[in-house]
Amino acid sequence: MKKFLAMLLALVMALSLVACGEKKDDTKTEGGDTATGSVYYLNFKPEADKAWQDLAKKYTEETGVPVTVVTAASGQYETTLMSEMAKSDAPTLFQVNGPVGLASWKDYCYDLSGTPLAGELTSDSYALKDGDATLGIGYVIESYGLITNTTLLEKAGYKAEDIKSFADLKKVAEDITARKDELGFAAFTSAGLDGSSSWRFSGHLANMPLYYEFRDDGITEKPATIKGTYLDNYKNVWDLYINNATCEPSELAAKTGDESEAEFGEGKAVFYQNGTWEFSNLTAADKFAMNPDDLAMIPIYIGVDGEEKEGLACGTENCWAVNSKASAEDQKATLDFLKWVVTSEEGTTMMATEFGPIPFKNAKESDNVFFNDANKLMSEGKYTVTWAFNYTPNVDAWRQGVVDALLAYSTGSGDWAAVQTAFVDGWATQYQLENG
Predict the structure, then answer these.
(1) Element (H or E) spanning 13, and its range?
(2) Is 387:199 a contact under the CB 8 Å cutoff?
(3) How far apart, in whole angstroms, are the C-alpha atoms of residue 94 and residue 85?
(4) Listed residue (159, 168, 161, 166) closest to 205, CA to CA
(5) What is the pLDDT at residue 35?
(6) What is the pLDDT of residues 83-100, one digit of tens each?
(7) What is the pLDDT of residue 4?
(8) Measuring CA to CA, how many Å separate 238 from each of 50, 73, 193, 210, 298?
(9) Rounded mean pLDDT of 71-92?
(10) Rounded CA Rg of the chain
(11) What is the Cα–Cα distance from 430 to 427, expressed in whole angstroms?
């Protein structure tokens, strides 16, 4: 009997050990809790799709937590987000574009105040607030201006340092155009008004007159109306772009963002209006593999007093938001993933490569020369052009009105008054529609 009881006790102990061993296979998060949720990120940036896919795969391999990344097509993010949010398996992580985007999506934004992610920010200025709540976190600091092929510019007899005003830019561009056949390249890439390219002009270029008007008038929140004080300056830059480019103005309707990028990458133009996010594409071996030493970014000068002290346009409209309607498990999984992205070797390396400087404590230094140019101008005391276009009401509709008017003006009508109407009256109309 004693031998039987001893055998029975040994069997029970063995089974207990097996059961304990099975529990060790549970997936653990960084904080030690069992991971039961998953992550679904609706990515805003098509150019960073592969980087996010690779990073998601790495995180899943490390933690066992499923991370799905879906990337919206260029110019279709809001439409895609609305569609996806209506589904039962909605994104747990998405993007809002600054205060304008927050106004539409704040009911879906989890309060990030006090979270480990918020604690990694280098400054509260990158926290997108609604009262005391932090409903979004800016994850990338971006700059834009005129990307310049310095080698081509020098072949034309100039250096980037020679351009400190609109008058300088006009002189250089028109001289290149006069010698276009001899030089073998144009001044500007095509200012395409196809949907994949038009945001550069209805958003980023349009920011220039908005910035100066808002600066003059002390505007610090979305205004119901604008005056269009600097629209003549906007016209002058636009005319310079389309009359000194790789294509005729009549071709702009069909010119795409990819074509403009390729024209620059293939050495067909000196200047290309775009941002810091283009650095990885222009220097990638499977695209253009341009030498970083051949690249610089200079301000978009529009002919205002004192613009020789102007720096690049810097800011962010790219803010992460966690879905407040998601399950608690998925919210936690998403917050754990984001903490890993901004602190891990893999995550910070990807962020530095794709986005340059990021506003988090563990950010790596970037080799992006465009950010170096932005920092150099700031260190010289040049003022930063902030992103006034973040205040645009009903942003997609307002921009489309401006694009339609620009297209008509550029391809035949020559009616700049219609552009002014779309810009100024269109703003008031869209503000009313947005705010009732």
Answers:
(1) helix 2-23
(2) no
(3) 10
(4) 166
(5) 56
(6) 999 999 999 999 998 887
(7) 37
(8) 34, 27, 12, 15, 17
(9) 93
(10) 26
(11) 5
Cα 86 to Cα 59, 80, 81, 110, 276: the distances in Å are 27, 10, 9, 17, 33
Which one has a higher pLDDT value, 187 or 379? 187
Indicate the burial class of 171 (C-beta count within 10 angstroms; 0-12, 13-18, 19 or more). Answer: middle
Edge to edge, the sheet with strand 93-96 lists 67-71, 39-43, 93-96, 319-322, 133-138, 127-130
Instruction: Name the nearest CA neighbour of 428 among 218, 133, 166, 224.
Output: 224
Place of tokens 């990338």: 140
Phi–psi pair at 228, nearest 5 degrees: 75, 35
The DSSP output letter for 382 is P
Q: Give pLDDT, residue 211.
A: 97
CB-based contacts of 180: which residues, under 8 Å, 6+ apart? 186
Q: Are strands 383-385 and 310-315 parallel, antiparallel or unpaired?
A: parallel
CB neighbourhood size of 107 (10 A): 8
Q: Residue 310 pairs with which residues in a beta bridge?
A: 383
Is the Cβ–Cβ distance between 304 and 183 less than 8 Å?
Answer: no
What is the DSSP code string of 15-33?
HHHHHHHHHTTS-B-TTSP
Top-confidence residue, 354 or 96: 96
pTM of the model: 0.75
CB-neighbour burial class of residue 125 (10 A; exposed 0-12, middle 13-18, buried 19+) = exposed
Task: Provide the token pair at 397.
Answer: 């509709």
Spatial CB neighbours of 33, under 8 Å, sequence gap ≥ 6: 332
pLDDT band at 321 (very low <50, low <70, confident <90, very high): very high
**Of 104, 110, 74, which is closest to residue 91 (Cα–Cα)?**
110
What CA–CA distance (Å, rounded) separates 267 from 400? 30
Model pLDDT for residues 127-163, shown as the tens digit of each residue: 999 999 999 999 988 899 999 999 999 999 999 999 9
